[in-house]
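[step 3/7] fold_predict: job queued, chain A
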Amino acid sequence: MRVMRNETANTAAFTLNGNRFVLDLSTGAVVSLRRPGSPEFIASPCGLVDLAYPVHLDYDLLRLSPNGKYNKKTPVIRAKNGGVEIRYEMLSENIEMPFLAETEGGVEVKILLTPDPDGVSVEMRCTVTNHSDTAVRQILFPNLEGLAAVSGEENARFTTTLFHMNPYAEQDSNERSRERFYGENRTVSGQFFSPAGLFPANGADRAMGGRWLDYGSLNAGLSLYRQAWGWGPENKYWMGSNDTYWVKLNHDDRTVRIASMQYLDLKKGETYDSGVYVLTPHLGGWVNGIGAYKAFVKKNQKRVVPVPRCMKEWMGFRTVWMGSGYPKDPEDAAWTYYDMPRLADDIAEHGLSAMNLWGWSNSDYFPYTKDTLYPEYGGIETFKKNVKVCREKGVDVYPLVSFVQIWYKQATERGLPVNATWAETIKAIPVFRAPYMKRWSSFNMGDLNQDWWKDAVNESLRFCRDELGMPSIAWDQYILCGGNDALHELINNYRLETYKKYPEAHFSGESTFFMESDIDNCDTQWTWLWWNEGMTDYRPYLYVVETERPNINVDSSPLFAKYIFMDNAMMNAYPSKPGLMNGSALIGDYPVFGETLKRLAALRKAYLPYFTDGDNIGDCPLFKEPKGVRAGFYRLNGTMLGFAVLDEKTKSAGLSLDPGAYLDGNAFKVEVLNEKNEKIAEKEIGKRGFLRVSGNPVDLFVLRITPVEK
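[step 4/7] structure written:
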């Protein structure tokens, strides 16, 4: 490794795994980053690290960074350990201030950049040692500032495993966006995202799913992930959710800043070690930068049973919300056990595979017994009989079980304090969590590593499996206790035990903040997720994880059903009657929605190998942002299958295709088919080409792309 110094230009340059870095000799900030064929990723000096260093009340704003203006000391830039070390004896300050004894000695920082074994990426590690009497209270590392819009501002993307967004659009400053209080206005404060699971933690704007992100465009970008797994590393009670990322648009130089943010209290003599972050500069879309993270996830997954094949094959399931748990009221139940065969017919007719039951059991009984089944709904024998009838119709039946709460009657009998209410019924005011209602108030389990609780859970699960004929389970609130794997181990033991009898039994959980545990236990999820237009994009998650398909719920929107289908998320249809609970209607009550599901089911059957075994590469095979249409692609055996859906206001839209970047060949045949899988057009394009799809708003098109032999 050689560091090439240019005293005239005041720069130091070096190359790691094909990535050429240029640093400012005076500050150590990155002023250029490219790889062969890429655009410039850095538009303004990138300081890589930034620290909060508040001294007294008047200096709460004091920060230290390579780009600090005061008390500068030139960093040492040298080759080390096959890479390059940037060492700051004392990091520079952003505020000029008089000498204060508390800051004597300053803060030392070392940043080490080394080639990753994958031959493409760069490993980044930072240590911060405090030699002063003033505590360091916050560390931003990696602090990727000055990032360029490599394909123009309108094509910029910040991508996580669950969504992508354009910081220039979301944080644009205009006469409307400036109306809000500046402290909570994203045009001023930026946005915060938490990489832990499917729900945002610690006040973040959105959840990222995993500890990976990408910034760039469909033409090039920078992928970044942290080599950390499970509990910690900074806080042993969290699993990634404390690794908050900050994304901020600089309105002056029109660059973007992305920083991993840690709060701490680093006192004199203490050292913080960031661990390893992996940066992957790449050409093309996110799929070309996520490979290192995908390998890291696979290395750390520890499943005890394989994913049942049915979980890969299903288009989806439907939720049946039987009632709100007040069976003495004859108007409370939307369905009873007698309705299960009719529901199964409706499910099978519309191409779905299973019935997930909510509100089916009496909370007064824990562990479950024969008395858990409501006599008002038909009792245990009717329930067992109709579970079998549904299975004969090709529809799996499995329950939602709720054990993380000990409900009111059980809690009071066990002497546990009731500290939360979860009442949810249209006859309450308010409908959700009416504080005066008791039946569905509960004691929230704070420690799941208790023998009495684990014994009751195991007895209940075995009752569902062995007595009721339901070996598959949906778990309400997959919530791990901080630093404790008791729930993870309990579910693993149940799955191992059940796998011997029922290898196709599946497990789903209401995922919360623990993605790195979820993917070991869960085959799919039951989570309160629905389509957020312009935000939802689980394709990176599905590409990386492979063992778990997040669910997305849909009531009766044909457009959202098509989006869920094309992305290969697990569809949960829960159509509702106006003014009633989710899942209170038949799918057939909404004919347009129902016919849409039938067509989608037929398409899934026709192209099933792409969904079960292909690479879900999202819209990366486009080289321009599409307008008026959403597209996604799968790659399998040297071919691609794509789907394109027009939005609700568009009849014709163009797609800028880049098949040559993902398939071998110089020319490609593109066949366009409609929702009935009927060919409506065919075109030959080169490595890059343009395709127009035309029809009615919300139409879906199938795109079959194969190399042309010449």
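[step 5/7] annotate
The radius of gyration is 28 Å.
The chain has a mean pLDDT of 95.
exit 0
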